[in-house]
Amino acid sequence: MQKDLISVVVPCYNMSHYLKDCFESLDNQTYKNFEVIFVNDGSTDDTLQLLKQYCKNKTNCQLVDQQNAGLSGARNSGLKLATGEYVYFYDPDDFLSPQLLFVLHKNLVEYNADISIVRYKRVKENFRSNYSKLEKLSQKFQVFDQEDTISQLYSGMLFDVCVWNKLYKHIILKQIKTYPNVFNPQIKCGEDIEFNYKYLKYSKKGVFSDAVCYCYRQHKSSIVHNGFNEEKLTDFIGLNYVERDCHQNFPEVELYIKGWKSSVCVAMLWSIFLSDYDDKDKITRLFDNFKDNLACIPLGKNNSKLLRVVTPCAYPLLKLGLAKRLHFKE
Known about the structure:
Radius of gyration: 20 Å
Order of helices and strands: EHEHEHEEHEHEHEHHEHHHHH
Structural class: alpha/beta
Distance between the termini: 61 Å
Helix content: 40-55%
Largest sheet: 9 strands, mixed
Strand content: 15-25%
Oligomer: single chain
Shape: globular
């Protein structure tokens, strides 16, 4: 591993519409000691051609062209080629502040942490980058021990389970038993939930900066925002694994993963309410999961006040909204 080098892993599936902004985000980074590993994951548009053109004269870029393996498979393929001391996972349909890699690296080194995290903001699909606003960086930092980092991860108060606002140490990634396949290919939605927990099990300290360095673009084609489909249920593969392991190794954190599970159920049930999905057994299991873990949300002191109040109210409302479809009997 090359000291201080950041390996940026970029999975690409039909991203031709967004690659111009992706390339601009990478070119404008003030921290220059990084390599980029693009993984074309079986794209059917012009993604591969655009990646070849961009990488042609870039000595710090590598390109992997593979059959479609999904987001987890693409990230794993990129990690196999990573040579940096640190690893950053970038989704190419989003925007980076020019200071992102600099801030993540600076904080990780300065605070001798194992994971560095920054704040992000959600933007609309037609968002245009405004670097002047992103570069107004906060000087507020918080340092957490292992258990508190995991608690914060699943409370969602300061930061959450996504990977693209975090910098990881390669040496810790290598401690995960399945390395370099650190992302579970069975999980089609919510793969970051399991991955981050597995990483933090080998970590001792996390640092969080209030600086907004990442713009997360919410677009209609995303699996997260494109209504309900059963691929979303694979989220529970990671959720169930983390809950079981927390129960054994971090009992104080179990409260937060159960609360997170309940919040996931809310989001899925709301998507189902807006769709015509009618698998009664699966919807009933979602309600059971929601109800079984609901009490953990108001009990979690790190959860936001809004979450602690609104989520419990959602249970009767969603049950009422879906009662006719599922013929619930009181």
